[in-house]
Design goal:
Elongation Factor Tu (Ef-tu), domain 3; elongated
């Protein structure tokens, strides 16, 4: 399957155009999963940590078409990364570097092919989608790729102590892996200390807490409320471990 991961949003025409390009190049019955189209705008660092967490629930052989690409049209490379049997197609701007660094096995290729029509502003549709579709169809585009020993832009793969995503409930996901925190740790966000809770019902209505979310990240929440509103959290807000 092809898994879409972008900052395009769902109100604009870009996701639809990219899907059309996938179906033009690949099989018409190819499964396409919309994983996330609300990666924080232009935020390759936040996107890199989100992608590393969210990819875990997908099987080997999945192809991720990952596009958070504020440098589109510049000289930043376009790449394919294989990490533990899954493929990632997108810009070499750090977005794919965390999942690559955390993988046991990895290799990468630079995309050297260019289509007859290549928009300077939409490589997701014109460049990345055809490559992803060929890989998904089992038609490895050997002449389109050149082996590369490493990614050009590599972000630190350690846990990221900041907010990386806020959902429509106001829950704020961090780049911290919950398994790396003491179970009774307290965090400081927005000038407040936030204790742990195992589930929402363990906190009083209106109280902020942190918990291990369904993809293994530390998430800040408020029982029946918005952590983002209460603590004034946005992507990039720092998270401090206080005890």
């Amino acid at each position: 399957m092809i898994v879409l991961f972008t900052d395009f949003g769902i109100d604009d025409p870009y996701v639809g155009q990219m899907k059309a390009a996938l179906l033009r190049t690949g099989r018409r019955d190819m499964p396409i999963v919309d994983l996330l189209h609300r990666v924080p705008d232009f935020a390759a660092r936040a996107g890199a940590h989100l992608l590393a967490a969210l990819q875990a629930s997908f099987d080997r052989g999945s192809i991720f078409l990952a596009v958070v690409d504020p440098g589109v049209g510049s000289d930043r490379p376009a790449v394919v990364v294989e990490a533990d049997g899954k493929y990632y197609v997108g810009p070499d701007n750090g977005l794919l570097s965390v999942v690559a660094a955390r993988a046991r096995e990895r290799q990468s290729w630079r995309i050297v092919w260019q289509p007859d029509r290549l928009s300077t502003s939409f490589h997701g549709r014109d460049l990345f989608a055809p490559v992803a579709a060929r890989i998904a169809a089992g038609d490895w585009p050997a002449t389109w790729l050149a082996a590369s020993g490493h990614l050009q832009q590599v972000l630190p793969a350690d846990d990221l102590a900041e907010i990386i995503y806020v959902d429509h409930y106001g829950n704020a996901m961090t780049g911290l892996r919950a398994a790396n925190l003491p179970p009774q740790a307290r965090l400081r966000l927005g000038g407040r200390d936030v204790p742990p809770a195992r589930v929402f019902a363990a906190a009083a209505a209106g109280d902020a807490f942190w918990y291990a979310n369904s993809v293994g990240l530390v998430e800040i929440a408020v029982n029946r409320g918005s952590a983002a509103s209460l603590l004034l959290l946005t992507p990039g807000s720092p998270v401090e471990l206080v005890g």
